[in-house]
Design goal:
By secondary structure, this protein is an alpha+beta fold. It has a single domain (6-288), classed as Oxidoreductase, molybdopterin-binding domain (Sulfite Oxidase, Chain A, domain 2). 23% of the residues lie in helices and 22% in strands. The protein is built from 8 helices and 12 strands. Strands 3, 4, 7, 8, 9, 11 and 12 form a 7-stranded mixed β-sheet that branches. A 5-stranded mixed β-sheet has the order 2-1-10-5-6. It binds the ligand Nc1nc2c(c(=O)[nH]1)N[C@H]1C(S)=C(S)[C@@H](COP(=O)(O)O)O[C@H]1N2 and molybdenum atom (MO). Residues 57-61, 113, 115, 150, 169, 198, 211-212, 214-217 line the site of the ligand Nc1nc2c(c(=O)[nH]1)N[C@H]1C(S)=C(S)[C@@H](COP(=O)(O)O)O[C@H]1N2.
Amino acid sequence: MKKFKYSEITPEKIYNNRRTFLKNLGYGIGGIAFANNALANTDLSKPTSYKDITTYNNYYEFGTSKGDPYKKSQDFKTRPWTVRIEGEVEEPIDLPIDEILNSFPSEERVQRLRCVEGWSMIIPWMGFSLSELLNKVKIKPEAKFVKFESVYDPENMVGQRRAVLNWPYVEGLRLDEAMHPLTTVVTGLYGKPLPNQNGAPLRIFIPWKYGFKSGKAIVKIELVKKMPMTAWMWASPREYGFYSNVNPNVNHPRWSQATERVINGEVFSPRVKTLMFNGYGDEVAHLYTGMDLKKNF
Ligand SMILES: Nc1nc2c(c(=O)[nH]1)N[C@H]1C(S)=C(S)[C@@H](COP(=O)(O)O)O[C@H]1N2
Ligand SMILES: [Mo]
């Protein structure tokens, strides 16, 4: 399989800088003053609009442009669908999606998404803790990590016909991260079923990690002994580590992670300071006690 060169993808940061540059040219000093002001005053409790959440996405199975997932995923069929839980468990199980939706009631969970490219959203998901789903199986003591596999279906996912990533999309967590109550199985958005472009019928969401850790359209959850190789580590290990906790002090090799552009419908997409663990430090920092988070990026 041909390896895709990541330097060929225009980073969001460059696109954004170009826009800021043009904007500042047009608005002169006023434009710059406004940008500084926005850095301090953005309301981080206002959810991003349904339209922005569902039309500005990364979902490479449907293409690499932000508009592709919305445009190219509408005919994707999410029934029938089964999620298999296997690996270091007493008894593997196959769970039909409707059984999952019926046996685990979803609640609204407003969570912040920080994409590694430098943009963020506040998303009112519907979902429940992954730990509840994992408790359906008896996990063996040998299990130390959890591997998430997204669907492989190049016939119905145009983006998978190109070797942009090493398909299927694979992500992973340490077992204690997976069991943390904030780690969510997402089944809906704004009180409605999850749209295809956001990972229907079921996706994982880990709010303190960069967005790419939160795999969409999950078909397999595997309990494993060793740290799994992920799609992004395979693509560019220097840039994407296993942990990928949101961390303003550890820059991406090609751009800073200190600030982010909040997508919230404002004309001048405001930039705010990125928070350690995406603002969830009180809840999750204890998971990383004694770890060097610069080495374990
Ligand atoms: N299967 C799969 N999952 C994926 C991706 C992808 O390309 N394929 N993109 C990731 C990235 S980079 C981000 S930022 C989030 C975006 O989630 P959203 O579309 O719900 O905002 O999904 C993540 N999960
Ligand atoms: Mo992302």
